[in-house]
Amino acid sequence: MQKLSIEQAIAQIVRKDSRYHRDAYAFVREGLDFTIKNIRKGAVAKERHVTGQELLEGIRQHALQEFGPLAHTVLTYWNLRGCADIGEIVYNMVEFRILKTTERDSREDFNNGYDFEEAFVHPFEPARKPTRRTSSHPARVGSTKPS
Questions:
Q1: For 71-95, how does the pLDDT look when each residue is reduced to its tens digit (9 = 90+)?
Q2: Sign of the C-alpha dihedral, residues 97, 100, 101, 107?
Q3: In three state form, how does the secondary structure of the chain look?
Q4: Which pTM was predicted?
Q5: 101-110 own/partner pairs: CB under 8 Å, 24+ apart
Q6: Phi, psi (5° rounding) for residue 45?
Q7: Residue 2 — very low, low, confident or very high, per pLDDT cuts 50/70/90?
Q8: Is-contact 9 98, C-beta < 8 A?
Q9: Please, what is the Cα angle at 23 between 82 and 8, to 5 degrees?
Q10: Residue 106 — φ and ψ, nearest 5°?
Q11: In the predicted model, is pLDDT for residue 55 greater than 70?
Q12: What are 16-32's pLDDT values in tens digits?
């Protein structure tokens, strides 16, 4: 049997499971590479397994770096609405032997990640300044005095 390229495997995955845009699969793969690179920065250059939580954090950082304030919009366009969706993509890729897991890994590892809005929208919202009241009484707009 001929081994499929990553692009061919992703095309087959998308034909089988059309929930996610094909670019979402490429992005998760890039997010894994980003995560591995960051893990190796501070450690001895030794291969090791990346956990679901590490991958989620790496994907969060990668999305913010790649897309900035548009991260949430791009991920939503690809139908990624939460960390569980990333887990679904990972396990679809495992099924096609693009990624590997260990016996300790499961889809549930991706269920308790972060909230997408907090992760991808809130970092770009303007800082809220406390409102300052000048008077303890509300202003009367358009009031008239009785004659």
A1: 999 999 999 999 999 999 999 999 9
A2: negative
A3: CCCCCHHHHHHHHHHHCCCCCHHHHHHHHHHHHHHHHHHHHCCCCCCCCCCHHHHHHHHHHHHHHHHHHHHHHHHHHCCCCCHHHHHHHHHHHHHCCCCCCCCCCCHHHHCCCCCHHHHHCHHHCCCCCCCCCCCCCCCCCCCCCCC
A4: 0.81
A5: 102/49, 105/51, 105/52, 106/52, 109/51, 109/52, 109/53, 110/52, 110/56, 110/83, 110/84, 110/86
A6: -65, 85
A7: low
A8: yes
A9: 125
A10: -155, 165
A11: yes
A12: 999 999 999 999 999 99
Decide: residue 38, CB within 10 A, 0-12 exposed, 13-18 middle, 19+ buried.
middle
Which residue type sits at 16? K
Rounded Cα distance between 63 and 107, Å, is: 21
Is residue 16 within 8 Å of residue 93, measured between CB atoms?
A: no
